[in-house]
Amino acid sequence: MNQPLAGYAPAPVTARMENHGDHMLKVAMQTGNDLLARVGSMIAYEGFIQYEPNPPAVRQIARDWATGEGAPLMKCSGDGLLHLADYGANVVVLNLNGEGISVNATNLLAFDAGLTWGVERVKGLAKFAGQGLWNTKISGQGWVALTSRGKPIVVDCGGGDDETYVDPDALVAWSPNLKVKGKRSFRAQSLIGRGSGEAYQMAFSGQGIVVVQPSEDSTDRLRVRG
Predict the structure, then answer these.
(1) 102: helix, coil or strand?
(2) What pTM does this model have?
(3) Which value, in Å, is the radius of gyration of the alpha carbons in the chain?
(4) Could you give phi then psi for residue 81, rounded to 5 degrees?
(5) pLDDT tens digits, one per residue of 165-198
(6) Which residues form a coiled coil (predicted)?
(7) What is the pLDDT of residues 105-143, one digit of tens each?
(8) Do the bridges between strand 25-29 and strand 134-148 make them parallel or antiparallel, or are there none, so unpaired?
(9) I need a surface site. Which of 2, 23, 45, 80 has the fewest CB within 10 A?
């Protein structure tokens, strides 16, 4: 019976974070190298791993989440092999080497607890969408795992004069050093929420990347927040 299933066995661990197929994240856990992961994302683990939902570090930052933006997180600690997933979404693994990434909270799966992170307002959008758009910014030296509803495209903005335009409902993440502004292409009534679908875009320029998923998020990314 094992022979037909051999191709699905876990591969040897080669990095802190890596994909097992397109839809699962494999994390090599070590004592002292904790992980913050989306609550409910654990699907299997080997070894001795403990979980703490809403740890103090998360509660501290959550006090600044007056907008309600942010994913419920748990701290994972211990030794072993941890597998995470999010309803069959594609998993994208990034190894930050001093860089940063700005992530839509609904697309954040897991990241090293030692990274610097927090929720920030995206500059340049407030006049288009009430209080603006809030994202989770993560930076430093370590690993981050994102999810995408389908196989994403990674657009290199290239630092040229041309801007890259993205539907905010399909946006996963971008380099925080990029310049961001809003573009209105139809009527003001379609500004909040999905509306006509393409009435509002985010324009990116500068040196960096933008990650876009082939599916529009069901949440209203640009709703007015108090």
Answers:
(1) strand
(2) 0.84
(3) 18
(4) -125, 120
(5) 898 889 999 999 998 888 776 554 544 454 445 5
(6) none
(7) 889 999 999 999 988 877 666 555 544 567 889 999 999
(8) unpaired
(9) 2
